[in-house]
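Quick one, tokens below. Sequence please?
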């Protein structure tokens, strides 16, 4: 490989841009090819044509333990655009009730256990079950998680004797939000990874954060400038139709219009179905399925401050799982409420009007002050292929970054065995691809 190799990156989401920025910083010449007309992939934003406000195509929470993500954003100068809690706290809303999880300043994981222990409404049986989970949770730091990859989250919670109330207020919301899957299907190893990374090493790791700008404004243009400043290019509206191979290696890619872009190495940061279509020679790609996320954005006839006194809140016992007060999150540059449903297979085919009514009903049920408010506009965003659908059967098929072609590397949240399909998994996979092509040093 030449001292300044030319690397083609297929896909301009978090994984592809993380790989491209890391490679550009090591003096590679990078060409990023994105099929869509705009970069950002499944973690981007767009202007609402009627209000002009920025709408995310899927609201994301970040965790302080996202070390690769924070490194990526620091390289771009965007880290100050993330706002983190001082320590973990979550407001849970349900009809007629509000519960607060507030973790005290204790060493990990006792901050989480103590915070949950002190939540209102727990019985003595719930508290005993929580204490019983302390031992298995502490042992996670010394386990590789392989045994837990063979059982579901539900089975693991059963084995630890966790009560229905603890599942309702702690385990299920955490699992569904982090894994985008039902606890009845997702491997317990993925939830164990979240618990290990966020709750077992330092209490600050579990703090939640959000972008104070639209997701695209967090990293897309900053990545473009970084790539172009090192002689690279980010090309949108440039769909790749296949790989150009030569024996045991790849020598470039073919675009849909027939153009061939030669390369010394290729990073494929595409989902499994697209990777299969491009001819990536990895077994099992057809067995991966997708899990959708829905975002229902609601505008009201009065300020959100009149009924929503939070940045974000979890919702218990309704179809909507999270509410995000964009007026507070975007610091006055928006006026809408974003309602999010993960693992949304049961809802993704419903009409926009039906979903807007459902979300508004859930808001009124959980926020009594909103019952006199009228929805004036709604925008539904469907990410049908938001993440892979993690199962016990497919966890062992996740390929990592290597392929049978020596200079073809895979990036994407779905490639990272043992990690849920999060922004952190996507960015980490991109960094690992960059390390394989041009080791840091």
């Amino acid at each position: 490989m030449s001292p300044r190799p030319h690397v083609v990156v297929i896909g301009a989401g978090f994984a592809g841009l993380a790989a491209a920025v890391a490679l550009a910083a090591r003096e590679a010449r990078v060409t990023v090819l994105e099929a869509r007309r705009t970069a950002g992939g499944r973690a981007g934003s767009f202007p609402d044509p009627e209000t002009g406000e920025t709408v995310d195509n899927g609201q994301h929470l970040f965790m302080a333990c996202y070390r690769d993500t924070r490194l990526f954003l620091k390289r771009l100068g965007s880290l100050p655009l993330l706002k983190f809690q001082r320590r973990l706290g979550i407001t849970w809303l349900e009809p007629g009730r509000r519960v607060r999880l507030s973790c005290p300043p204790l060493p990990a994981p006792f901050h989480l256990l103590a915070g949950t222990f002190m939540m209102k409404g727990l019985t003595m049986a719930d508290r005993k079950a929580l204490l019983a989970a302390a031992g298995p949770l502490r042992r996670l730091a010394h386990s590789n998680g392989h045994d837990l990859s063979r059982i579901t989250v539900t089975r693991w919670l059963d084995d630890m004797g966790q009560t229905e109330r603890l599942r309702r207020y702690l385990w299920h919301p955490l699992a569904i939000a982090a894994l985008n899957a039902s606890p009845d299907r997702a491997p317990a190893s993925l939830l164990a990874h979240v618990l290990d990374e966020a709750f077992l090493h330092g209490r600050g790791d579990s703090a939640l954060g959000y972008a104070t700008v639209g997701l695209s404004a967090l990293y897309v243009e900053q990545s473009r400038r970084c790539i172009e400043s090192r002689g690279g290019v980010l090309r949108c509206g440039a769909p790749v139709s296949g790989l150009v191979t030569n024996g045991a290696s790849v020598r470039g890619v073919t675009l849909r219009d027939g153009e061939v872009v030669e390369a010394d190495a290729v990073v494929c940061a595409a989902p499994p179905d697209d990777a299969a279509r491009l001819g990536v020679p990895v077994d099992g790609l057809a067995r991966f399925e997708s899990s959708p996320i829905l975002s229902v954005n609601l505008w009201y006839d009065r300020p959100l401050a009149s009924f929503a006194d939070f940045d974000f809140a979890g919702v218990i016992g309704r179809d909507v799982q999270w509410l995000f007060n964009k007026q507070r999150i975007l610091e006055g540059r928006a006026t809408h409420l974003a309602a999010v449903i993960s693992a949304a297979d049961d809802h993704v085919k419903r009409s926009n009007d039906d979903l807007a009514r459902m979300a508004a009903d859930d808001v009124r049920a959980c926020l009594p002050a909103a019952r006199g408010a009228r929805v004036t506009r709604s925008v539904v965003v469907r990410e049908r292929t938001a993440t892979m659908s993690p199962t016990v059967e497919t966890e062992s098929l996740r390929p990592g970054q290597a392929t049978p072609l020596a200079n073809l590397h895979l990036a994407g949240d779905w490639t990272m065995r043992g990690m849920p399909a999060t922004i952190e998994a996507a960015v980490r996979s991109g960094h690992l691809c960059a390390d394989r092509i041009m080791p840091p040093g």
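Residues 364 and 370 are 5 Å apart (CA to CA). The chain has a mean pLDDT of 95.
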